[in-house]
Amino acid sequence: MTRETAILPQAIPTRAIKPQTIKYVVKPLVFASALMPLAWVAWTAVASGLGPTGPLGANPIEYINRFLGDWAIRFLLLALAVTPVRGITSWTFLIRFRRMIGLFAFFYACMHLSSYIVLDQFFDWTEIWKDITKRNYITVGMVNFVLLASLAATSTNGMIKRLGAKRWTKLHKLIYVIGIAACLHFYMMRKGVQLEPIIYAGICAVLLAYRVAAHLKKKARAGRAENPDRAGAGAAHR
Amino acid sequence: MLVKFSKASDVKPSEITSKAFYLDRRRFLKTAAVAGAGAAFGTIAAPVFAAKGNPRVKLSGVRKSKWTQEALGEELTDYGPITKYNNFYEFGAGKTDPAEYSQDFKTKPWSLTIDGAVEKPGVYDLEDFLKPHQLEERVYRMRCVEAWSMVIPWVGIPLGDIIKRVGLKSDAKYVAFETLLDPEQMRGQRRPVLKWPYKEGLRIDEAMNPLTIMAVGLYGEVMPNQNGAPFRLVVPWKYGFKSIKSIVRMTFRPDMPPTAWNVASSREYGFYSNVNPTVNHPRWSQAKERRIGDFFKRPTLMFNGYKEEVAGMYAGMDLMKLY
Ligand code: HEM
């Protein structure tokens, strides 16, 4: 029973994880784990030679492209989950992984785009251009990729300094738009009304709703501090 | 119970199915076991329908047609991909879901309703209904709207023969097809991915076209559940989704029937849905396709390469509008 209380979120003292442990042990572990999906799919593709009877199914190119797209959106949602999870659990150290997770979202988006260009279209730029301009879900995907790239490019400490914390924070609010657009891209790409994209969109909605709730709470608190009379009146009404 | 289609003119099944049998040894052994059990009870003959467990069972008395692999001049897609990579949303939206979740699908007995503007409407037992017909092999290209394609050796009967048998009334201008509605067995139907049951339709001249068949098998064997057992349509010059699977009803009617994908998104899927590389689809370029097993895409052919047989039916129609 004592062990159970020990694993309660609040019971984990953040200070217990030393910065060195995070830097030299946990981060490399997270980094290596994040590469596992790519390593697996690349190895399987090479080992089975993209044939129609291998472990990636009859259409390995479709499989690979979708697999990479799936991981791009998963890392995107993971990155969006850092703030809410940190807020709820008080695991402040999580913030140290947010940039890495976000960059992995971008990395998998790059792989997803590359698989589309190289495997699916094999550098047929006319077809690619037609797809980007005419296929709505691909238009959304491409715009989203550009937005995500702009965040990746400004993710370094140097860029934060150059932009200034305020402007940087404002720019990186784009991640909310990117999350929504990724869900939209997924939903549009699937035919009919399918469950998977709806689940991803639901998770995204919860993660964004947390921010809205936090924002409203903060505003209410600020309002109360400014005008204690009104706050008191409100409480009396209820 | 067991149907046997045998004629002296039969092509030896080995001529048709040789390739299939090398490929899936586990399934082959399962089939062998079923056949063995059948022999033990003295009932060895080829049924038209898969028994429970979806075993591989050879069809006897399958005649060759003029649509052979040699005539087509393209390589057959292997049995494995044909039966493991399916769009059959009734069993799930993933490509491998149908193979995974249709194994216990019950296709026997199967009741087929034929109604509407026909001389002999009725509710038929499929097995009885098919008895008078000669099965034949048709090697056709299959072009999915998702821009991939296969070459499949179907076994079936011309839809035209069925239509002649039931006798059309003069106001039969279209035929509507309906898939079984059974969410209990078809897990995909428990969610509103599409408006169930799946519906499709053809104009009567399309239905009577010699290319149009009702298929009951492939690779000389009973139709695997995941490919639309026991009774499905095959219209090779149209996108794959027109070739409706596991059909329980055919209704002949004067007006154009609603079709499942058209109801879901009319902007993307028209009633005709003829394979047409020049009509831009909002989701996939239709100019090219990937033949399953190939790395490079190939150009898509007008009417999927069946222009000669079908173009006449659409003379004077604006195929850009009536896609
Ligand atoms: C932030 C960027 C992006 C994310 C998060 C993303 C995510 C996804 C996801 C989750 C899927 C569905 C996978 C599945 O069905 O399991 C998908 C499909 C797809 N995406 Fe993206 N995507 C992005 C950008 C792009 C870009 C830039 C392109 C191309 C220019 C693209 C092209 C495609 C294509 C072609 C498919 C469908 C493949 C098929 O039909 O099988 N995506 N993407």
Mind telling me which CATH architecture of chain B this is?
Answer: Alpha-Beta Complex
Secondary structure: number of strands of chain A: 0
Euclidean distance between termini CA atoms of chain B: 43 Å
CATH fold label of chain B = Sulfite Oxidase, Chain A, domain 2
Q: Into which percentage range does the β-strand content of chain B fall?
A: 15-25%
CATH domain class of chain B: Alpha Beta
Report Rg of chain B. Answer: 19 Å
Largest interface: A-B, 27 and 31 residues
Helices and strands of chain B, in N-to-C order? HHEHHHEEHEEHEEHEEEEHEEH
Which small-molecule species are bound to the chains here? Answer: protoporphyrin IX containing FE
What is the H-and-E element order of chain A?
A: HHHHHHHHHHH
Shape of chain A: globular
CATH superfamily of chain B: Oxidoreductase, molybdopterin-binding domain
Q: Can you lay out the helices and strands and say which pair or pack?
A:
The complex is a heterodimer of chains A (238) and B (323).
Chain A: H1 2-6, H2 19-48, H3 60-89, H4 95-120, H5 125-134, H6 136-153, H7 157-163, H8 165-171, H9 174-189, H10 195-226, H11 228-237
Chain B: H1 13-23, H2 25-40, E1 63-64, H3 69-72, H4 79-84, H5 97-101, E2 111-116, E3 122-125, H6 126-130, E4 136-143, E5 148-158, H7 159-166, E6 174-179, E7 199-203, H8 204-208, E8 213-218, E9 221-222, E10 232-234, E11 247-253, H9 260-264, E12 288-291, E13 298-299, H10 307-310
Parallel strand pairs in B: 1-4, 2-11, 5-12
Antiparallel strand pairs in B: 2-3, 4-5, 5-8, 6-7, 6-11, 8-9, 8-10, 12-13
Protoporphyrin IX containing FE (HEM) is lined by residues 62, 65-66, 69-70, 72-73, 76, 109, 112-113, 116, 132, 138, 141-142, 144-145, 148, 182, 185-186, 189 of chain A.
